[in-house]
Structure formats: C-alpha cells, structure tokens
Amino acid sequence: MTDKIARAREEIERAGDEAESNVREPLMSLSDGLKEIVGGDKTQDTRPHDDRLREVEHQLDELEDEAEGSPRERIRRAKTLIEDYRQNASTE
C-alpha cells in the first residue's frame, strides 16, 4: 500500500476512534474498504482504480458534513491524501 493511502487510512481510523457513533461505523467501514481497494498489505505496487477512490472521497465528503472537531479535520486530511495519491498516480 502506498504511503499516502496508508496515511489516509490512519487518519480515517483515528477519526473513527474520536467520532460520534453515527460517523464512527461508516468511517471504520471505509477504512476496511480502502484497504481492500489497494490490495491490503500484499503489495506496494498495486494501483487502485480511480473510480473506486473517487467513491471513497464522495463518502468521506458526506461523513465530513456529519462530523465535528478533530474527526472532521482528520477526514479532510484523508481526502487530501487520497486526492494527492490519485493525481500523482495519473501522472506516472
């Protein structure tokens, strides 16, 4: 898994740990889904499909609206990391 995606997952997991219950479970589910999208820990070279990462970003957008404080900031950082990853992956 790439460094940016790994960091995004970490932000999502921490946001889930800190978030209210209505946001916590969807965040943890997204974290698991993100791990699945990039192939878990099997390889560092796997490039996830752009459309699936966009869907994760869309779901994070919705959760960001529901979150407050630190969880909201962590969701924003995760979205930025995913976006940076997608942009860099498309130029390579």
Quick structural summary:
The chain has 4 helices and no strands. The protein is mainly alpha-helical. Helix 1 (3-18) runs antiparallel to helix 2 and helix 3 runs antiparallel to helix 4 (69-91).
Can you tag this structure with a few keywords?
single chain, globular, 0% strand, 79% helix, mainly alpha, 92 residues
Mean pLDDT: 87
- As a percent range, the share of strand residues is under 5%
Query: Would you list the SSEs in sequence order as H and E?
Result: HHHH
Residues in helices, as a percent range: over 70%
Radius of gyration from CA coordinates: 12 Å
> Major β-sheet, in short?
none
**How does the helix and strand content classify structurally?**
mainly alpha
Global morphology: globular
Low-confidence stretches: 41-45
Secondary structure: elements and pairs:
Blueprint: H1 3-18, H2 21-37, H3 50-66, H4 69-91
Helix pairs in contact: 1-2, 1-4, 2-3, 3-4
Describe this protein's structure.
There is one protein chain. By secondary structure, the protein is mostly helical. Helix content is 79%, strand content 0%. The chain is built from 4 helices and no strands. The chain has helices at residues 3-18, 21-37, 50-66, 69-91. Helix 3 runs antiparallel to helix 4 (69-91). The chain is globular. The chain starts with a helix and ends with a helix. Residues 41-45 have low confidence and may be disordered.
